[in-house]
């Protein structure tokens, strides 16, 4: 089955371009489009797509609030949202990830990275543009969390600490497997264990926790 996507961007030419790129990819189908955040939320709730692709700056309800509405901490059945923007600003990424975004891309990311992000989000993973991953996630370490980082339910194993650091640096599962000389299925098992121990819903939240607890300090 195709991954169904809702695209929201207030610039028609950008929205049309994103739709054309996504519809040209095998296994991806854009099922709805919106020009503002409120319409995007309504469409997403009605269509229940596998992935939502939202621009940050939209009239009425911006991409951050739309993301929080559909994927925020208090949402019982959060949807997979990727935030896309022209602006490479720390504050935007910080806000997007806090709001529950499962990915963050710049609009010049290209078709290959956009497609990869959609597949990752649909599979329960997350992708943040590699050129901004470390610097932007590091914002969580530089700022003071609103609440103290939660403690893991059980102590992390040495291998889980290694996987945690790799996830925080934006490594993919395949890259982690290659770096640590373990199988892909073992990587997935460790990530599932980390999510359980940390109470994280996705790998973005795992990375955020790593930076908030100063386990990773921005090394690439």
TrEMBL record:
4-aspartylphosphate modifications at: 55
UniProt-listed SMART domains: HTH_LUXR, REC
Keywords: DNA-binding, Phosphoprotein, Transcription, Transcription regulation
Boundaries of every Response regulatory domain copy: 4-122
CDD domains cross-referenced by the UniProt entry: LuxR_C_like (cd06170), REC_NarL-like (cd17535)
Organism per entry: Rhizocola hellebori
Keyword Transcription in record: yes
Gene3D superfamilies to which the protein is assigned, alphabetical: 3.40.50.2300
GO terms under biological process: phosphorelay signal transduction system; regulation of DNA-templated transcription
Domain HTH luxR-type: 149-214
Matching InterPro entries: CheY-like_superfamily (IPR011006), NreC/VraR/RcsB-like_REC (IPR058245), Sig_transdc_resp-reg_C-effctor (IPR016032), Sig_transdc_resp-reg_receiver (IPR001789), Tscrpt_reg_LuxR_C (IPR000792), WalR-like (IPR039420)
Residue runs in coiled coils: none
Protein name, UniProt field: DNA-binding response regulator
Gene Ontology MF annotations: DNA binding
SUPFAM superfamilies: C-terminal effector domain of the bipartite response regulators, CheY-like
